[in-house]
Structure formats: structure tokens, C-alpha cells
Amino acid sequence: MINEILLSIVTVTSPNAAVLRQPAEPVTSFGEHTEKFFHSMVATMRNAGGIGIAAQQVGETMAVFAVDVSQCVASGDTCALDRRTVKIRSVSPLAFFNPKITKVSEETNVQEEGCLSIPGVRAKIRRANSVAVRYQDEKGDTHELECGGIFARCIQHEEAHLRGILFTDDAVSGDE
């Protein structure tokens, strides 16, 4: 069992808020430290009531985010993980080390989002309906994921954090 610790969430008003705008650095070595960091990120995210969290949000510039949308999807909702159809709830939470979005759908939609680093603020954001992403897990194994809905939206939100972009940077007015 990996011991996780709750990490401090960096907000836009934190003294170290500049880390939220820093681009992520690739993770080049994997082991117990990456597993422990992932589990601590998940514990921190869940404790704060979030469904995604990026390393910058806990003061690190590693290229990693964690996502757990298991409470936001129906029990039968699926995604494609390594070309196999799986239930989203069975693979959550997921660690995305060194992620690269390889495909986005042409179809988009506008929905309201929030962010653990900007407490109390909500904004309408246009995102692709579905995405494909290549990434490494906390052990360094490479995977490919294709998903839609809230899972795709969360991945796009967290991947933007790794580029130093906050969701409010992409806010749209009305239902544009």
C-alpha cells in the first residue's frame, strides 16, 4: 500500500501562484516516487471535491495530472483504453504522465467549469466532445485512451494546466 499525503493546493491568490503559469517539465524516471505523488494528488483532489488535478496545482512543474470522473458518469459509461472498451468507473482514477492529446473531435460544446485553483469561479468553456490521448501511467507504462463527455472535458482542462493555461483564459460568452 502506498502512503499518500494531502498536498497544498495552489490558488491564484497563493504566494507561489506563478507556478500555475509555468509549462510542465517531462517526467523521465518512474518508480515509487511517481506512484506516491499520483496517490497524493488523487487524495488531495478528492479531499477538495475535484475530479481532476494537475501537478502545477500542488506546486510542482512535472508533466502529470490525475483524473477521477467515476462519480460523474453512469455505471455503464465506457471509454477505449489501449483499444479495449472498458467501463470508466473501472479505470478511475487515472494518472496521466507526459500526456499528449493526439486527436480531438471536430464537434464541440460549451459547458460551465470550475477549478480547484480558482475557488468559487465558474465559466463557460468550449471544448471538443471527444479526445484521444497518449500518456504514461505512474509506473511509466505507455497507454492510449479515447473518451468523450465529462472525461474528455476534464482531460482537456488538466492538460491545459500543463501548458500554464487556466480555464478562465478560454472563457466564452453565452453559448457561443
List the helices and strands and how they pair.
Layout: H1 32-47, E1 52-54, E2 64-67, E3 78-81, E4 84-87, H2 88-91, E5 94-104, E6 108-113, E7 123-128, E8 130-136, E9 142-148, H3 149-162
Write a brief structural summary.
This protein has 176 residues and is of the alpha+beta class. It has three helices and nine strands. The protein has a seven-stranded antiparallel beta sheet. The protein has a two-stranded antiparallel ribbon with strand order 6-7.
Walk me through what this model shows.
The chain is of the alpha+beta class. It has a seven-stranded antiparallel sheet. Strand 3 and strand 4 (84-87) form a beta hairpin. It has a single domain, classed as Peptide deformylase (Peptide Deformylase, Alpha-Beta Complex), CATH 3.90.45. The longest helix has 16 residues, at 32-47. It is globular, with a radius of gyration of 15 Å. It has helices spanning 32-47, 88-91, 149-162; strands at residues 52-54, 64-67, 78-81, 84-87, 94-104, 108-113, 123-128, 130-136, 142-148.
